[in-house]
């Protein structure tokens, strides 16, 4: 074991140690670090590509195009009637004798073909194993005839720590909201309403049942009807104004005998896109007879 980030009396920190640390922080792959113009490619002509300012990490090795500047990369002409893909790599080299290291852009020319061109091969090394050459593919240049049709960036741009922190907060908030929604699933809520009598066959409740959040609900009722509907059928239903638009009637149960208790003779599945959706009950008696609904309970259960 040896100290890296401390004074020893002589120079001792190596580029390999520094790359080890950066691999642990940024990652062991290849990335554009958020900086400057993020190495944005800009095609000046079919023979010249500008690479704007930015910084790159490749296997822990950091290289850059200085802020306020750009690099120029010379491109080779395409071939009439042929297609080709060239590869622009960030090429790391180390001199075995002097130990001097360097990074520079290099164009690896692909093979011209009539159709379906392929990306040319490159040298994939490992700096931590001491390889002298390690090439990082950064851009593909696509040719159709003599023209460049696309310059494709191959590396993702990493988020800075502040952005990562913000993303973590947003993720936490979404997980909290999801947890709340999951907790609501499967739990049945009950709302009790006062007795209601119909007049000339129809009665609408002024009492509302409020659904707490957007989603899909199963709604059903229990009630006892008292009265003398000797003809027709007395219905207990749900009216949902904002969802239906017209406040349509959805029967959740019916009764044709005095004192008969209703229990999910029918049920209604409601999907709402808003929170605090209000629903209400309505009575309808086909024969026009007076009756009273008692012991009314509305049950709703969120299913999605």
Description:
The chain is mostly beta strands. It has three helices and 20 strands. Strands 10, 11, 14, 17, 18 and 20 form a six-stranded antiparallel sheet that branches. Strands 1, 2, 3, 4 and 9 form a five-stranded mixed sheet that branches. The two termini are 57 Å apart.
Please give a quick description of this structure.
13% of the residues lie in helices and 47% in strands. The protein is mostly beta strands and 304 residues long. The strands form four sheets. Strands 10, 11, 14, 17, 18 and 20 form a six-stranded antiparallel beta sheet that branches. Strands 1, 2, 3, 4 and 9 form a five-stranded mixed beta sheet that branches. Strands 12, 13, 15, 16 and 19 form a five-stranded antiparallel beta sheet that branches.
Unreliable stretches, pLDDT < 50, 5 or more residues?
241-247, 254-265
Oligomer: single chain
Radius of gyration: 36 Å
Note the beta-strand portion: over 45%
* Secondary-structure element string: HEEEEEEEEEHEEEEEEHEEEEE
User: Helical content, roughly?
Assistant: 10-25%
For the residues shown, what is the average pLDDT?
79
> What distance lies between the first and last C-alpha atoms, to the nearest angstrom?
57 Å
How many individual β-strands?
Answer: 20
Largest sheet: 6 strands, antiparallel
- So what's the overall shape? elongated
Counting DSSP H or I runs of 4 or more residues, the number of helices is 3
Alpha-beta content class:
mainly beta
């Amino acid at each position: 074991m040896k100290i890296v980030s401390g004074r020893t009396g002589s120079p001792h920190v190596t580029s390999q140690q520094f790359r080890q640390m950066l691999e642990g922080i940024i990652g062991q792959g290849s990335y554009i670090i958020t900086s400057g113009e993020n190495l944005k490619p800009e095609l000046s002509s079919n023979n010249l590509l500008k690479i704007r300012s930015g910084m790159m990490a490749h296997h822990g090795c950091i290289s850059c195009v200085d802020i306020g500047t750009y690099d120029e990369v010379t491109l080779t002409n395409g071939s009439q009637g042929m297609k080709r893909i060239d590869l622009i790599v960030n090429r790391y080299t180390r001199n075995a004798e002097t130990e001097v290291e360097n990074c520079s852009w290099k164009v690896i020319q692909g093979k011209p073909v009539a159709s379906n061109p392929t990306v040319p091969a490159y040298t994939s090394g490992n700096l931590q194993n001491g390889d002298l050459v390690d090439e990082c593919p950064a851009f593909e240049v696509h040719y159709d005839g003599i023209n460049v049709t696309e310059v494709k960036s191959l590396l993702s741009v990493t988020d800075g720590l502040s952005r990562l922190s913000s993303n973590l907060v947003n993720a936490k908030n979404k997980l909290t909201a999801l947890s709340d929604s999951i907790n609501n699933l499967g739990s049945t809520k009950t709302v009790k309403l006062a007795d209601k009598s119909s007049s000339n066959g129809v009665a609408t409740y002024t009492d509302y049942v409020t659904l707490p959040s957007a989603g899909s609900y199963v709604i059903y009722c229990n009630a006892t009807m008292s009265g003398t509907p000797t003809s027709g059928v007395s219905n207990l239903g749900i009216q949902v104004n904002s969802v239906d638009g017209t406040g349509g009637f959805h029967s959740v149960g019916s009764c044709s005998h005095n004192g008969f208790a209703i229990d999910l003779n029918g049920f209604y599945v409601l999907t709402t896109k808003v929170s605090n959706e209000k629903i209400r009950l309505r009575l309808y008696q086909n024969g026009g007879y007076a009756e009273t609904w008692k012991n009314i309970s509305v049950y709703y259960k969120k299913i999605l």
